[in-house]
């Protein structure tokens, strides 16, 4: 699309992308938690970390959301579990939470599932552009665990896919900046500073029409 190729739009989108990235240094944990979405590369990353022996269990969480109602036969969690199994993760090492419909529920429902397992350390695996939101959510809603956050090592240019093109990708990043700004007052996330450059990119993209995820 013509708008998607605009140099100014690309520059603003990349500014949001860089803000959303976290990529913690990883170490061994009690469980890897993969947040469901359209992006099966998250399941691949979970399988990779499992094979690196960073945890003995993977918990996949997710029902279906705005982008996956027609993408998978079952829930996101079930689709991710199948993908991890195809990548060599044993079925008995996979847990499925198939009801969560947003990141807050991903975290709360995972916390409830692991309540009897004395979980102290976790790795959250999500899409690159939702790392900061996942970090803020787990800090607010599961504060007793030590949580590391990571994602597939996908470059900015390769994050859009045929089922989730550039336009939708930018709408999502814009919406998540708004949630990072507004959700702390609701108790959903911890507060985080939003740099002026990110706020300016957000305002510009909203004016350009990237507001469908607000």
From TrEMBL:
Q: Which domain of life is it from?
A: Bacteria
Entry GO terms, CC? plasma membrane
Which residues belong to any copy of the DUF218 domain?
30-175
What InterPro entries has UniProt attached to this entry? Cell_Envelope_Assoc, DUF218, Rossmann-like_a/b/a_fold
**Listed PANTHER family:** DUF218 DOMAIN-CONTAINING PROTEIN, INNER MEMBRANE PROTEIN, PROBABLE PERMEASE
- Protein name in the entry: Uncharacterized SAM-binding protein YcdF (DUF218 family)
């Amino acid at each position: 699309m013509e708008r998607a190729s605009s140099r100014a739009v690309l520059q603003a989108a990349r500014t949001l992308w860089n803000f959303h990235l976290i990529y913690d240094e990883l170490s061994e944990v009690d469980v890897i938690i993969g947040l469901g979405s359209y992006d099966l590369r998250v399941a691949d990353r979970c399988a990779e970390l499992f094979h690196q022996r960073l945890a003995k269990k993977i918990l996949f969480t997710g029902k279906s959301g705005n982008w996956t109602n027609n993408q998978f036969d079952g829930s996101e969690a079930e689709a991710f579990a199948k993908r991890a199994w195809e990548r060599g993760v044993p079925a008995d090492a996979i847990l499925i939470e198939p009801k969560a419909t947003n990141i807050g529920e991903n975290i709360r429902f995972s916390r409830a599932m692991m309540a009897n397992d004395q979980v102290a350390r976790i790795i959250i695996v999500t899409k690159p552009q939702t790392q900061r939101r996942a970090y803020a959510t787990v800090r607010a809603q599961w504060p007793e665990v030590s949580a590391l956050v990571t994602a597939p090592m996908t470059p900015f240019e390769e994050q859009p896919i045929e089922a989730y093109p550039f336009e939708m990708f930018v709408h999502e990043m814009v919406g998540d900046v708004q949630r990072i700004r507004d959700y702390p007052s609701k108790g959903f996330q911890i507060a985080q500073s939003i740099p002026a450059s990110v706020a300016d990119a957000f305002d510009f993209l909203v004016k350009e029409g990237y507001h469908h995820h607000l």
